């Protein structure tokens, strides 16, 4: 038997964490016997790449355990990613996949349904009366599998002697290689690391592929080289490199593989030969042809020779796995000196930029005070910027433009070998005049920039061997991305500084060419087909189009039909260079590109007639505005606005575009909140549609694709379908916020956090056929996989599109929506709530989002006296700002006027300041509020300080109403965490059950704001529906409890999860009165339990006191032990014996107990320094009691929900029998 333990990989949903922990406890003996070692995602350490770690262990595991439950099947990641990879390994025989049945669900219909499951009886663990017996059955089954694996693998073990022999064979004697010095060591910051388990898996797969070729007698080079190519490609992904097969490089040389790193720098080469070839002779031929030998593997499936720094440094026999492993490690950990210096320099450049930029800004400010020539030049330039680019542009932003120009000017001269650019480019020349004035007194930029020499030299050194212009362009794009990350994070955020991968540009341009041909019987090259890139970045799209146009037609297109705009200075410079050089490369003559404008595309829609920067730029802009644009193509800014108003980093407002959105996308939306409709990329869709001016044409944009399925964009989806005859959307996934198990850097094509898609919208008035087409790449694909897919398909022509049939609510993706949901009784609708119809056909008359303060740290606190003092100070600070603004004459630029040091600003608070709304403290506004699950705090509930009160004052107008009224808070549509519901007798916060989601509140009573005129909120229509079904004795409280029960029903949540993401709940009616009464009874018990949690009996926990320290009730930050069986309260006290079942009651993304741990801790807001302390000196034991009570509430909730699921099934409200289970 093998001495190494077998690796177990646990694939499971977070909801099943408690059951996984129990399983691991039962597997302890197997671990102690050194038979297994387990791995799951909780073992990932801070700073490690989540996706790489999971992939690595998923590929190296000997046994993959699928912990099957409804939550597992419902999880896109578990079911759609991990399970698929697991089944691929099972099919190849490289791993054993074993389903472990935790909870009842329809698992037999899954791809793993034919596998032998454990427990052997296929009875899920939770259905066993004795769970220990269930887990014991699983352990025995696993032990048998382990024995089988060990007995079958023992014959193939490699001896230690073989390993030692490998080391001796590294360098062959007698061939001149024994005295070759080792490869140049890499800088510590650039050394790649390769996981041993991942490498082992890749090598085993390589041997298997070779064996398959042997089995069919295939031994020619083009076939067998694919095995080594796959080996290299897989290993490259693990070190964030990319293998590009047969890429032509400098000197028209085409290696079998070029490996590039994340900077797009070439790091290694691979050349394959046939098994019968003489490798030494083949290498001599390649040397003669000028093949690169910096870091190159030559192989013929029998042997491999590695060259580094032009010398052979390693030779191995490929049949020896240990030698192959050493070969790959030496290959992937090698870094050329220039590249090592470059990577270190770029990182240090990024880190030093803020310091150097700060020093330059100080110089500019100093010269502005002392240098009259500079003042005149600067003021003239600033006036140009404000009349041409942005009337609100600040002096600081103009200073940043000068700094950008100074810091990067040298790179244009050296990397692009264009010393005359700053004089020839119309914008650069204007800025250079200001720089000349800046240096006219005593400032010498050359002396100042000498401290950057080391960085410039390193960057120039890395670029010196890049021969082709396109490669230099990619290289500089990367440098600029790093520049912006270091120099101006705000500008990078506002403008979305991420450049478009070439594969996407190729695909989009080819697709536009295809659509022009098939839909309009024309082409890109035809005169009059005018094309505009509205946010050109570095000009990639226009460059790509120029490559596609025949030389015979290029001059006319270049002079008259191609246009692009860029608002950020440095990319504008590069775009001008790139486009002009591509034209020169094609036509062999220089011609300035008059189609590029230094302008804000959205600002052009405002209709201003002011000069646009300089006369030549103004003429270009007017030429563009006069053009009959037929194609809009590009990559608009992807960002979604500033996260925090205090960042003072807003995206610009554009009155014309914003108004067009209000009267189209927003007006047609049913969503409660539509602020996302004003995201930058949405504005570009609206602008592009209008820019076609009702003509036939094409919009082709790569963008954030949240508009495809999020509820806030229903109006946008409606108008896109109206405005275009055909729409194609290629969903490239990559939404890390939706699926945190994927990595933005690994899976997203832009390396960002939001999902990306390519949209091609066609308006062809001559084509009567309308259509909406969609294709979604697999979510598990890396960005390399996606790039390969785009290259393979080439354009939209070769993609197998799915034709979508949107529903009446303009949902495009309807496959997971259950049609019967819309026939149930709606909880509430916006139309009924807003119009107050007397004949409302909804269960509730009104509802509201919870309170949204926009400054929680200011207006919430556990201590009412601390809160009172803080609020009074905030009011004084705010009122002082109102008075200061009034004295200053009401300046319009409010964002740059207000002081951010002492006030947590928001859009609403700035509006109140503009309206000169003063405020004063009123103790009546101090209210108890439920902030998070089972967490009540004090809130200062008042206009001005609280942004959105919702209907809190009509639901809970005073403290008396809290004695009689109850609201049911539920996840609002579009939720990202688990759907949740909770009853409370206090005003709820907007993010009550999940920080990422909003929560709608449905009260039993509503009131006038003074507390009078109490009214039942359940409609008479609702009462009539229930009474006609179940009898006249039904009252409205019965309906209230019934709703609460249904909202907790596991099958309801599971079956309608997608419906609930798109709409507020609709409540089904059960077939019989007895079933109705069961729901009423359980709903009432659940509600009483959740409302009265502070009176619940404390769960009997084991107190473990640390006798070495004084006993203390104070809580700083509690934490669970690794197995979640105990809670460490503080240094003196641990509470043990926590039942795993309590973690099954989840609200949002946490269990109830985990919410208590999260909320009841001492914390400090980093921005303001405000501290929060939950400890109550008048009741020191409260938090400890609360822990025990919340565990009891959790256990009882789980029991009641399970009882409900057993007594009421989904078929009781459907007309067909179903087999469904869901998770709480």
- pLDDT average, as an integer? 84
Query: How is the largest sheet built, in terms of strand order?
Result: 13-12-11-14-15-17-16-18-19
Q: Find the structural class using helix and strand composition.
A: alpha/beta
Helix content: 40-55%
Radius of gyration, CA atoms, in whole angstroms: 33 Å
The low-pLDDT segments are 155-191, 485-497, 609-614, 640-645, 1217-1224
Q: What proportion of the residues form beta strands (DSSP E)?
A: 5-15%
Q: What's the total count of β strands?
A: 39
**Span between N and C termini?**
43 Å
How many strands, what sense, and barrel or not for the largest sheet?
9 strands, mixed
Task: Briefly characterize the structure.
The protein is of the alpha/beta class and 1224 residues long. Among the domains are: 6-157, Toll/interleukin-1 receptor homology (TIR) domain (Rossmann fold), CATH 3.40.50; 162-335, tt1808, chain A (Alpha-Beta Complex), CATH 3.90.1570; 337-487, no CATH class; 816-852 and 948-1091, no CATH class; 1094-1212, no CATH class.
3D structure, described in words:
It is a single chain. With 1224 residues, this protein is α/β, with parallel strands linked by helices. Among the domains are: 6-157, Toll/interleukin-1 receptor homology (TIR) domain (Rossmann fold, 3-Layer(aba) Sandwich), CATH 3.40.50; 162-335, tt1808, chain A, CATH 3.90.1570; 337-487, no CATH class; 816-852 and 948-1091, no CATH class; 1094-1212, no CATH class. Helix content is 43%, strand content 14%. The chain has 44 helices and 39 strands. The strands form ten sheets. Strands 13-12-11-14-15-17-16-18-19 form a nine-stranded mixed sheet, with helices on both faces. Strands 5-6-7-8-9-10 form a six-stranded mixed sheet, covered by helices on one side. A four-stranded parallel sheet has the order 2-1-3-4, sandwiched between helices. A hairpin with a 3-residue loop joins strand 8 and strand 9. Helix 8 (196-215) runs antiparallel to helix 9 and helix 42 packs antiparallel against helix 44. The two termini are 43 Å apart. The model is unreliable at 155-191, 485-497, 609-614, 640-645 and 1217-1224 (pLDDT under 50).
């Amino acid at each position: 038997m093998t001495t190494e333990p077998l690796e177990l990989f646990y694939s499971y949903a977070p909801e099943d964490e408690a059951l996984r922990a129990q399983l691991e406890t039962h597997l302890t003996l197997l671990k102690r016997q050194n038979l297994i070692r387990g791995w799951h995602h909780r073992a990932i350490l801070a700073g490690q790449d989540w996706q790489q770690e999971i992939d690595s262990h998923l590929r190296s595991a000997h046994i993959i355990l699928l912990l099957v439950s409804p939550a597992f099947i419902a999880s896109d990641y578990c079911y759609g990613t991990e399970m698929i990879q697991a089944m691929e390994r099972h099919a190849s025989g490289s791993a054993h996949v074993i389903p472990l049945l935790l909870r009842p669900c329809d698992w037999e219909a899954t791809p793993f349904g034919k596998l032998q499951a454990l427990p052997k009886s296929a009875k899920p663990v939770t259905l066993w009366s004795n769970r220990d017996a269930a887990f014991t059955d699983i352990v025995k089954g696993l032990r048998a599998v382990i024995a089988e694996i060990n007995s079958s693998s023992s014959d193939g073990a490699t001896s230690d002697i073989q390993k030692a022999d490998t080391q001796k064979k590294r360098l062959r004697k007698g061939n001149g290689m024994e005295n070759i010095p080792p490869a140049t060591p890499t800088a510590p910051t650039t050394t790649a690391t390769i996981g041993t388990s991942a490498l082992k898996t890749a090598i085993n797969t390589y041997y298997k592929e070779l064996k398959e070729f042997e089995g069919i007698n295939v031994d020619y080079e083009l076939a067998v080289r694919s095995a080594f190519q796959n080996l290299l490609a897989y290993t490259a992904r693990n070190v964030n490199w990319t293998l590009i097969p047969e890429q032509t490089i400098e000197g028209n040389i085409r290696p079998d593989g070029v490996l590039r790193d994340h900077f797009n720098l070439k790091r290694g080469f691979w050349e394959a030969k046939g098994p019968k070839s003489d490798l030494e002779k083949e290498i001599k031929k390649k040397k003669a042809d000028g093949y690169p030998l910096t870091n190159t593997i030559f192989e013929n499936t029998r042997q491999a020779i590695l060259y580094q720094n032009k010398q052979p440094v390693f030779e191995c026999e490929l049949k020896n796995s240990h030698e192959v492993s050493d070969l790959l490690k030496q290959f992937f950990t090698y870094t050329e000196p220039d590249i090592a210096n470059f990577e270190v320099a770029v990182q240090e450049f990024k880190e030093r930029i803020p310091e150097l930029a700060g020093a330059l800004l100080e110089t500019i400010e100093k010269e502005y005070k002392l240098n009259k020539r500079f003042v005149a030049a600067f003021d003239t330039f600033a006036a140009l910027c404000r009349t041409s680019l942005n009337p609100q542009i600040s002096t600081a932003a103009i200073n940043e433009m000068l700094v950008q120009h100074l810091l990067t000017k040298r790179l244009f001269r050296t990397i692009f070998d264009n010393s005359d650019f700053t004089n020839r480019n119309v914008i650069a020349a204007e800025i250079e005049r200001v720089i000349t004035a800046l240096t006219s007194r005593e400032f010498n930029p050359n002396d100042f920039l000498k401290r950057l020499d080391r960085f410039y030299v390193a960057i120039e050194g890395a670029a010196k061997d890049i021969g082709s212009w396109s490669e230099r362009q990619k290289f500089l794009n990367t440098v600029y991305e790093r520049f912006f990350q270091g120099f101006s994070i705000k500008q990078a955020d506002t403008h979305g500084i991420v450049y478009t991968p070439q594969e996407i540009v190729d695909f989009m341009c080819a697709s536009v060419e295809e659509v022009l041909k098939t839909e309009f019987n024309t082409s890109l090259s035809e005169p009059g087909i005018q094309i505009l890139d509205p946010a050109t970045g570095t000009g990639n799209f226009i460059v790509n189009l120029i490559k596609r146009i025949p030389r015979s037609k290029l001059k006319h297109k270049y002079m008259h039909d191609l246009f692009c705009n860029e608002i950020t200075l440095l990319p504008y410079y590069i775009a001008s260079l790139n486009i002009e050089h591509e034209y020169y490369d094609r036509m062999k003559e220089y011609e300035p590109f008059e189609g590029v404008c230094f302008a804000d595309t959205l600002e052009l829609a405002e209709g201003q007639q002011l000069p646009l920067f300089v006369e030549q730029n103004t003429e270009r802009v007017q030429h563009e505005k006069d053009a009959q644009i037929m194609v809009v193509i590009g990559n608009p800014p992807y960002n979604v606005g500033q996260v925090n108003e205090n960042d003072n980093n807003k995206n610009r407002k554009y009155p014309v575009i914003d108004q067009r959105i209000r009267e189209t996308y927003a007006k047609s939306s049913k969503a409660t909140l539509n602020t996302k409709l004003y995201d930058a990329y949405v504005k570009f869709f609206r602008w592009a549609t209008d820019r076609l001016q009702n003509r036939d044409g094409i919009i082709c944009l790569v963008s954030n694709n949240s508009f495809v399925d999020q509820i806030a964009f229903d109006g946008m989806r409606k108008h896109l379908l109206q405005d275009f005859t055909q729409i194609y959307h290629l969903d490239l996934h990559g939404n890390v916020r939706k699926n945190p198990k994927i990595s933005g850097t690994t899976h997203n094509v832009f390396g960002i956090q939001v999902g990306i898609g390519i949209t091609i919208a066609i308006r062809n008035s001559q084509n009567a056929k309308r259509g909406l087409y969609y294709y979604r790449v697999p979510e598990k694909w890396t960005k390399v996989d996606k790039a390969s897919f785009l290259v393979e398909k080439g354009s939209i022509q070769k993609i197998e599109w799915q034709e979508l049939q949107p529903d009446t609510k303009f949902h495009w993706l309807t496959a997971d929506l259950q049609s019967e949901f819309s026939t149930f009784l709606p909880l509430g609708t916006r139309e009924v709530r807003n119009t107050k119809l007397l004949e409302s056909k909804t269960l509730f008359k009104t509802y509201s989002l919870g309170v949204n303060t926009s400054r929680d740290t200011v207006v919430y606190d556990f201590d009412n006296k601390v809160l009172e003092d803080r609020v009074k100070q905030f009011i004084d600070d705010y009122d002082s700002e109102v008075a200061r603004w009034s004295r200053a004459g009401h300046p319009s630029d409010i964002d740059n006027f207000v002081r951010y040091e002492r006030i947590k600003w928001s859009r609403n608070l700035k509006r109140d300041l503009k309206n000169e709304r003063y405020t004063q403290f009123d103790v009546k506004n101090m209210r108890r509020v439920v902030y998070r699950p089972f967490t009540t705090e004090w809130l200062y509930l008042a206009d001005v300080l609280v942004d959105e009160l919702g209907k809190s004052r009509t639901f809970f107008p005073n403290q008396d109403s809290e004695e009689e009224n109850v609201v049911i808070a539920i996840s609002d549509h579009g939720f990202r965490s688990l759907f949740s519901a909770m009853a409370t007798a206090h005003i709820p916060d907007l993010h009550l059950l999940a920080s990422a989601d909003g929560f709608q509140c449905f009260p039993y009573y509503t009131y006038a704001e003074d507390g009078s005129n109490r009214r039942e909120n359940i409609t008479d229509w609702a009462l009539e529906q229930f009474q006609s079904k179940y009898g006249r004795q039904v009252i409205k409280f019965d309906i209230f409890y019934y709703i609460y029960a249904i909202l907790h029903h596991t099958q309801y949540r599971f079956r309608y999860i997608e419906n609930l993401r798109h709409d507020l709940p609709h409540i089904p009616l059960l077939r019989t009165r007895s079933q109705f009464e069961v729901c009423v009874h359980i709903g009432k018990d659940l509600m009483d339990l959740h409302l009265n949690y502070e009176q619940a009996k404390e769960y009997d926990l084991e107190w473990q006191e640390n006798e070495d320290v004084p006993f203390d009730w104070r809580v700083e930050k509690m934490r669970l032990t690794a197995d979640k069986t105990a809670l460490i309260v503080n240094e003196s006290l641990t509470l043990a014996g926590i039942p795993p079942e309590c973690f099954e009651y989840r609200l949002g993304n946490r269990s109830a107990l985990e919410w208590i741990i999260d909320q009841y801790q001492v914390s400090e807001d980093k921005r303001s320094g405000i501290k929060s302390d939950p400890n109550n000196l008048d009741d020191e034991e409260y938090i400890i009691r609360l822990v025990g009570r919340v565990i009891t509430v959790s256990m009882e909730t789980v029991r009641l929900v399970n009882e409900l699921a057993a007594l009421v099934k989904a078929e009781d409200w459907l007309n067909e029998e179903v087999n469904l289970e869901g998770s709480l």
